[in-house]
Amino acid sequence: MRPDEISFRLPPPAAAIPARPPEPVPTMVPLTIDGRAVEMPAGSTLLDACKTLDITVPTLCYLETLTPVNACRVCVVEVEGARVLAPACSRQVESGMVVKTRSPRVDLSRKVVLELLGSSVDLSTAPGLAEMMVEYGARPERFQESLGSASSVSSVAQPVKIDNDLYVRDYGKCVLCYKCVEACGTDAQHTFAIAVAGRGFHAHISTELDVPLPDSACVYCGNCIAVCPTGALMATPEFELRQAGAWRPETQAVTDTICPYCGVGCTLTVHVQDQQIVKVTSPFDNDVTRGNLCVKGRFGFEYVNK
Question: Labelling 84: which of 135, 262, 279, 295 has CA 20 to 30 A away?
Answer without folding.
Answer: 135
